[in-house]
Design goal:
Keywords: Hydrolase. This protein is an alpha+beta fold. It is 27% helix and 34% strand. The chain has a four-stranded antiparallel beta sheet with strand order 3-1-9-10. A four-stranded antiparallel beta sheet has the order 2-7-6-5, with helices on one face. The longest helix has 18 residues. The model has no long low-confidence stretch (mean pLDDT 96). The structure holds adenosine-2'-monophosphate.
């Protein structure tokens, strides 16, 4: 099972992010990520056997995270795989703390893959031949997040399809 931990945007923010993908596409090209699949990856776990998914899901369901706010105000890209994303210019310390805390727990279960660098981003376009430029409008969105989800990724003809397997407990 191909797994990752992510923050999934609430529906209204998901729609706004989808609108940004529509705005970026004529400039950058590539394959637009469907609204349902937009997310922020906190920990990519790769292929894992099914019992591992259960173990990770049980661990996640017992966790409560510190709610936080992420201000999205920046276009960005990873030129080589042709990714176009939105992220934050600053104020990412709470997300970094969250990613750090999650990897501590995952490593406690002997999972590996903690990245050397964490660059929080929401991918809008994949395999885009052009990177975002000054013609794109300013981004100003706020994401109030409360829980992390364990997501299983399936490859389909239309791209990746995601299913949520487990989530952290909401804070009281
Ligand atoms: P991306 O959005 O930058 O492509 C599910 O595949 C998620 O995990 C995606 O958000 C993707 O990030 C990320 N991901 C995919 N393959 C990865 C890898 N080999 N290492 C780290 N993250 C990966």
């Amino acid at each position: 099972m191909r797994l990752f931990l992510a923050l999934m945007p609430p529906p209204a923010l998901r729609r706004r992010l989808g609108e940004l993908a529509d705005i970026a596409w004529p400039h950058c090209g590539g394959r637009r990520v469907p609204d349902d699949s937009l997310h922020l990856t906190l920990a990519f776990l790769g292929e894992q056997p099914e019992p591992r998914a259960t173990e990770i899901g049980d661990w996640l369901a017992r966790l409560t995270i510190l709610p936080g706010q992420w201000r999205l105000d920046r276009w960005g890209g990873f030129r080589r795989p042709g990714i176009v994303w939105v992220g934050g210019a600053e104020g990412e310390a709470p997300l970094r703390d969250l990613q750090y805390q999650l990897w501590d727990g995952l490593e406690g279960m002997d999972l590996t893959g903690r990245p050397k660098h964490f660059a929080p981003h929401i991918t809008l376009l994949r395999r885009a031949p052009r990177q975002p430029g000054p013609a794109l409008p300013d981004v100003s969105l706020t994401w109030d997040y409360t829980r992390v989800e364990l997501i299983q990724s399936f490859f389909t003809q239309g791209g990746s399809h995601y299913v949520s397997l487990a989530r952290t407990t909401l804070p009281e």
